[in-house]
Design a protein that fits this description.
Belongs to the uroporphyrinogen decarboxylase family. The chain has 347 residues and is α/β, with parallel strands linked by helices. It has 15 helices and nine strands. The structure holds coproporphyrinogen III (CP3).
Length: 347
């Protein structure tokens, strides 16, 4: 692992240092809005092939760093690599999103196994190793996984859904059976994240994109519990590596999430009020967020104004500038350049 991490300003907020201007990276900063990504994507053939080809996955991770000079790169992979590695069939249909053979019974679940994950996880770790070698010294590298609850919604439903009802039903109907699925995803995520840190990741993010669809008692059991376990186990193996949680849509439960999981930072979604972000950061928590990805599509003066507003609200606090959710494909790359320039234009 690289020893000289001191010059990576992305890590400063986690060491209690206020940084001005704040460090910046954007969720989905690698992806289809970049023509050079689309070219590599065609070369790879399938999306999962891209994730499992270290040379190409590293290349698309580096593309936004070359263009925009973000303070952190995020490993190019996907949250659905975990069920794929466990033995579930996962496909990405062009323009339709992910398709998985749904796991809906204990017999389906028994076909998945932690013992199968080795070869695919090691390809992702090889990408991380390459990246730590090829990234600029000052750029931090973020590894990631999906939170067990969010990954489970895809595993059970077999695709993205509006209300995550298949997973929510299973959790009510047969909590013990559903717990087995969550436990398997939790254990796999611990292995996956630990491997990424061993390979050179400087920080980790746990994406819980569907955290907001659960009743509060269910949130406690399926979001907080498993996330707390991942944080505990990864931290025991790799003390000092910051872990950021992204419980999207759960601003009302943010305090309980932070306390219950003991994450080092929280990524706030677009609907999270700036006042709550300030309050959270004043309590010493690192906060990340939360520009609306659609404002990055429309751009112009309105983009500048909102960038200034978020930055001013979080000034002097442990803050990392980001979006409230991922970049969308029709984002003009020039608007991303404009955002970074605006953010860095003054101290
Ligand atoms: C829910 C989720 C997924 N994947 C992810 C989440 C959590 C964050 C979120 O809520 O957006 C996370 C993810 N997916 C991807 C990354 C790579 C790193 C980065 O942020 O730059 C990360 C961190 C690449 C990707 N993952 C995917 C793409 C686009 C596919 C392509 O290039 O063909 C990329 C760049 C595909 C994907 N992957 C997933 C879906 C639903 C889709 C289809 C939707 C879409 O097409 O945008 C599952």
């Amino acid at each position: 692992m690289d020893s000289d991490v001191s010059e990576r300003r992305f890590l400063d907020p986690f060491a209690g240092k206020a940084v001005s201007p704040p460090p910046v990276w954007l969720m989905r900063q690698a992806g289809r809005y970049l023509p050079e990504y689309r070219q590599v994507r065609v070369e790879a053939g399938s999306f999962l092939k891209l994730c499992y080809t270290p040379r190409l996955a590293a290349e698309v991770t580096l593309q936004p760093i070359r263009r925009f000079g973000f303070d952190a790169a995020i490993l190019f992979s996907d949250i659905l690599v975990v069920p794929d590695a466990l033995g579930q069939t996962v496909r990405f249909e062009e323009g339709e999103g992910p398709r998985l053979d749904p796991v809906q019974t204990l017999a389906d679940l028994d076909r998945l196994a932690l013992s199968k994950t080795g070869s695919k996880f090691s390809l992702v770790c090889e990408t991380v190793e390459r990246l730590r070698r090829d990234l600029p010294q000052e750029t931090a590298l973020i590894g990631f996984c999906g939170a067990p609850w969010t990954v489970a919604t895809y595993v059970v439903e077999g695709r993205g859904s509006a209300d995550q009802s298949a997973a929510r039903h299973w959790a009510y109907r047969d909590p013990d059976g559903f717990q087995r699925l969550i436990a398997l995803l939790t254990d796999a995520s611990i292995e996956y994240l630990s491997g990424q840190v061993r390979a050179g990741a400087d920080a980790l993010q746990i994406f819980d994109s569907w955290a907001g669809s659960l009743a509060d008692d269910q949130f406690e059991r399926w979001v907080i519990g498993p996330t707390a376990k991942i944080v505990r186990e990864v931290r025991a193996r790799h003390p000092g590596v910051p872990i950021i949680g992204f419980p999207r849509g759960a601003a009302a439960l943010l305090e309980g999430y932070i306390e219950g999981t003991s994450v080092d930072g929280v990524s706030c979604d677009t609907a999270c009020p700036l006042g709550l972000m300030q309050q959270t950061a004043r309590n010493g928590q690192v906060v990340q967020g939360n520009l609306d990805p659609l404002l990055l599509v429309s751009g112009g003066d309105a983009l500048d104004r909102r960038v200034d507003e978020i930055r001013a609200a979080m000034k002097g606090l442990p803050f990392i500038f980001n979006l409230g959710h991922g970049i969308v494909p029709d984002t003009p790359p020039d608007n991303v350049a404009r955002l970074v320039k605006r953010l860095r234009s003054t101290n």
